[in-house]
Amino acid sequence: MKKIAVLIAALCMSCGALAHSGGTDKNGCHRDHKNGGTHCH
User: Fold this and answer.
1) How confident is the model at residue 17 (pLDDT cuts 50, 70, 90)?
2) Do residues 29 and 12 lie in contact, with contact meaning Cβ atoms separated by under 8 Å?
3) What is the 3-state secondary structure (H, E, C) of 3-38?
């Protein structure tokens, strides 16, 4: 039961990491229009 709870918690926390708007270039970077420059994953 404890393993299931840990798995569910891990899945819930990882959902936020998957969400990101905008496309990426060949290096996995986005243009950062708000601050200028780029940000990469």
Assistant:
1) low
2) no
3) HHHHHHHHHHHHHHHHCCCCCCCCCCEEECCCCCCE
32 contacts 39 by C-beta, under 8 angstroms? yes
Average pLDDT over residues 2-26: 72
What's the first-to-final CA gap in the chain, in angstroms?
34
Bridge partners, 31 (sequence order):
38
Reported pTM: 0.35
d(CA 1, CA 39): 40
